[in-house]
Amino acid sequence: MTLVAERKAGRQGPAHPLRAEATRxxxxxxxxxxxxxxxxxxGATADRWQGGWVETRSELxxxxxxxxxxxxxxxxxxxxxxxRRGTEELWGTAVRGPLARFLASALPLALWLVAGYALxxxxxxxxxxxxxxxxxxxxxxxxVDVVAVAAASVSGQVVGRLVPWRPVAPLLAPAGYxxxxxxxxxxxxxxxxxxxxxxxxxxxVPVGRQQAAMxxxxxxxxxxxxxxxxxxxxxxxxxxxxxxxxxxxxxxxxGGALWRAxxxxxxxxxxxxxxxxxxxxxRYGALLPQVTAALSGVTDRLEGVRNLPVRFEDRPGxxxxxxxxxxxxxxxxWSVVRGRLxxxxxxxxxxxxxxxDRADCDTRDPRLGLADDAVEHYLAPSPxxxxxxxxxxxxxxxRRSGLAKRQAARERLASMEADARREWLSAYFATAGxxxxxxxxxx
Length: 443
Prior knowledge:
Layout: H1 3-12, H2 17-23, H3 26-44, H4 53-62, H5 64-79, H6 81-85, H7 88-92, H8 98-128, H9 142-162, H10 168-185, E1 204-206, H11 208-230, H12 238-254, E2 259-261, E3 268-271, E4 277-281, H13 288-294, H14 296-301, E5 311-313, E6 323-325, E7 336-337, E8 340-341, H15 344-356, H16 366-379, H17 385-393, H18 397-414, H19 418-429
Parallel strand pairs: 4-5, 5-6
Antiparallel strand pairs: 1-2, 3-4, 7-8
């Protein structure tokens, strides 16, 4: 070796352990595996979240139910590496202390796992952006989720170093999933409030204290475990432990009070040019033109008809007086996929059913059924109507007779003069929600 090369090698010195762990070995592979796994899961479920900001937030958060146990198992596997290699005694003679050696191994894995999750989250948000029909991105849970992933990885590494049983790492994943899952399944248990993977509903958003408390809870427990294992002054583990217990106590005692209803859920965007008026939730207000177009056949035929609700409403809870519930647009993946109504004809038929409001009728008198069927056929026939009619036409005598009666009632309503039909429909909608066939006008 030349003198110049020797001087360069002396200046460079040995690679820092953090750099070595972060650039090769298990940590980068684990991070890439997390990214690929989350990408596959998100891609397979894209219909139910792509196009809704709240839905995307909840889908990313729900992934923690699987990701946290896997992160803990990955940390546990890495924690047992030196035991598997038989180099524990050699590391014990190193100049660096046990805490520095632990962090040199644990931090790169935690950062790679966090990077995999963060990249998957960024990809999901970018995938939602072109199809979003209102509202804004919700990033309120992401910082705490990132902290939880890192904490699970570091805590798993502590377990891997303490437990000399090789199968503990693969067993830690299903065990962690079971613990988190049991907490999720609990409706009234306090454990669900300290579970970082507990599902969040679409209509709830956290207050600031919830995020801070959850971050302190998960990070405090992980830090206490690390200090109790590797610190020279192990009593220092009491400080993060006390902070974690205080945060956990706050989460349990306040419970659901640390969540509030999403303000966007209570706002609507309305088209007042139709009868009834059409309103959609402000979270997806840009869907209003599609919804109005889908219901245009209904609203056009109802022009001049009395006894109708003032508007279709789309807010949480029961409709107010003079309103009727708009057919459901959420959860995404049914009526709406990637910002588009999947079946406008079906949606219009559901809107007519909402106007009739007879879902609570245990039994429906044949006279009531004939009137309802005729109105549905005139305003917005079901996409399945033709299929059922063909089945009845090839059925027994009773079914053929029923079909003939329905077709005759449809024809009588369609052949009425416009003014007479409006009067009949006005009398008909005066009985909306009533199961008494005697009150429905004859057809």
